[in-house]
Design brief:
Blueprint lengths: L1 E3 H6 L10 H11 L7 E4 L6 H14 L10 E5 L1 H5 L7 H15 L4 E5 L18 H10 L3 E6 L1 H8 L3 H6 L1 E4 L5 H19 L5 H14 L7 H19 L3 H25 L7 H42 L12 H18 L4 H12 L5 H16 L11 H12 L3 H5 L2 H6 L1 H8 L4 H15 L2
Parallel strand pairs: 2-5, 2-6, 3-4, 4-5
Antiparallel strand pairs: 1-3
Protein name: AAA family ATPase
Keywords: ATP-binding, Chaperone, Nucleotide-binding
Pfam family, one: NBD_SMAX1
């Protein structure tokens, strides 16, 4: 009924946890106490409550914890497995008591993590609800069981604070929402994971845009969760466009099918005499030809951009030392390429060159010793000249991809997302003055306060 989170950390299944050192240190202090050594992590949904426990598991694996917590396993309670099939009254309590007995008698110290603890603790007050607080209190009071609970503020006030005996045994750990700067640091720590998962590259401007734009435009959700979702979606879109046609081509293909169906219907009506006016038929045929022409142009542009982008990605991976065939030479690809002709001349003077090395050196002679950096610059220039403000395939995730995702989610126009905030505030007086007449004093006061609020 539980999953070993420490084993997941040991096997590299957990993502790095950043900007949460204070909260993790506070949890370690509480866990090392003699009494009241059970933290309850409280915060809004999406701020990273579960990530704190993952960070603690990573520290335990790395040995960066006090001796009292070394070689400790963190077990995550599987509420679904615990409740499944426990329809008979008393079955759930029997299972949980057996679980507590195993945790207490385990030769390896175990910390039990109960995520969404409000679903079990205090829910027994409702008709037919489950309540394990009465089972937990004796074990927690005797210090036999170490538990970490996680819940939201509303549920904590509803269930924990009302039960004085239970709240005394848990020590509160507050988890607040990080600001945009901290969210950017968190995204930098996760970027390598998403790059490997999606097979794309992410630039730093995209990470900053994901944090700042999601904080500004995505209300009702918390950082860093919403910024991570935006970044994940942008990475998925870039990866999808590398292998499948973009949505512009899909939209034109659908439109062509609709026009074909209308043409067939009009031909049928003209053939049997239901329609005598051919003007609509002529109009649809012209539109159909225009759609096919635009579709052919888009498909040609997509294939050209796709070829260039794949070569750009391969060169970037080569320079970063990611490509498998470049794993041995180490990442100094520029130095290797620049020194290659000298080594070739030395080998020609000293003696014969092995056949496999000669085959490997022959393409470099025809390439006229163009370094990967120079070739990358050439391909990037070709891509910039090719897309002509109609980029169908991107070689990496940038702030334009992030802005496009947020614009689609919120309905805010893309050009507004791309504007600098201070330039918008600077021109605010003119824009409001063109729309609102006779309120110059109020507009000036609003403008002054906005400038003051955004001042460094």
């Amino acid at each position: 009924y539980a999953k070993n989170m420490t084993a997941d950390a040991r096997n590299g299944r957990l993502d790095p946890v950043l900007c949460r050192d204070h909260e993790i240190d506070l949890m370690i202090d509480i866990l090392c106490r003699r009494r009241k050594n059970n933290p309850v992590v409280v915060g809004e949904a999406g701020v990273g409550k579960s990530a704190l426990i993952e960070g603690l598991a990573l520290r335990i694996v790395a040995g960066q914890v006090p001796d009292k917590l070394k070689n400790t396993d963190i077990m995550t309670l599987d509420l679904g497995a615990l409740q499944a099939g426990a329809s008979v009254k008393g079955e759930f309590e029997k299972r949980f008591k057996g679980l507590m007995a195993e945790v207490i008698s385990s030769p390896v110290p175990v910390i039990l993590f109960i995520d969404e603890a409000h679903t079990l603790i205090g829910a027994g007050n409702q008709q037919g609800g489950l309540d394990i607080s009465n089972l937990l209190k004796p074990a927690l009071a005797r210090g036999e069981l170490k538990t970490i609970a996680a819940t939201t503020w509303s549920e904590y006030k509803k269930y924990f604070e009302k039960d004085a005996a239970l709240s005394r045994r848990f020590q509160l750990v507050k988890v607040s929402e990080p600001n945009a700067a901290e969210a950017t640091i968190i995204l930098r720590g996760l970027s390598a994971v998403y790059e490997q998962s999606h097979g794309v590259l992410i630039d730093d401007d995209a990470l900053q845009a994901a944090a700042t734009l999601s904080e500004r435009y995505l209300s009702g959700r918390q950082l860093p969760d919403k910024a991570i979702d935006v970044l994940d979606t942008a990475c998925a879109r870039v990866a999808i466009n590398l292998s499948s046609p973009p949505k512009q081509i899909s939209a034109l293909t659908t439109l062509s099918h609709q026009q074909e169906a209308e043409i067939r219907q009009l031909e049928r009506e003209l053939r049997i005499g239901l329609r005598t006016d051919t003007s609509r038929m002529t109009e649809v045929l012209v539109q159909y030809d225009e759609t096919l022409t635009a579709l052919d142009e888009l498909e040609a542009a997509w294939h050209q951009q796709q070829t260039l982008v794949r070569e750009i990605i391969a060169l970037r991976q080569q320079l970063l030392g990611v490509a498998e065939d470049d794993a041995a030479p180490l990442p100094d690809a520029d130095t290797v390429e620049d020194t290659q002709p000298e080594s070739e001349s030395e080998q020609d003077n000293t003696g014969a060159v092995p056949a496999d090395e000669a085959d490997r050196e022959q393409p470099e002679e025809t390439a006229e010793t163009v370094s990967p950096v120079q070739r990358l610059a050439q391909l990037t220039a070709e891509l910039d000249a090719l897309h002509n403000d109609r980029l169908l395939v991107s070689p990496h995730v940038d702030k334009k991809q992030i802005a496009a995702v947020i614009a689609e989610w919120t309905g805010v126009p893309l050009n507004r997302l791309s504007q600098n905030e201070m330039s918008v505030i600077t021109d605010l007086t003119k824009w409001l003055g063109d729309t609102i007449k006779g309120q110059d004093l109020a507009i000036a006061s609003l403008h002054k306060h906005l400038l003051t609020a955004r001042a460094d």
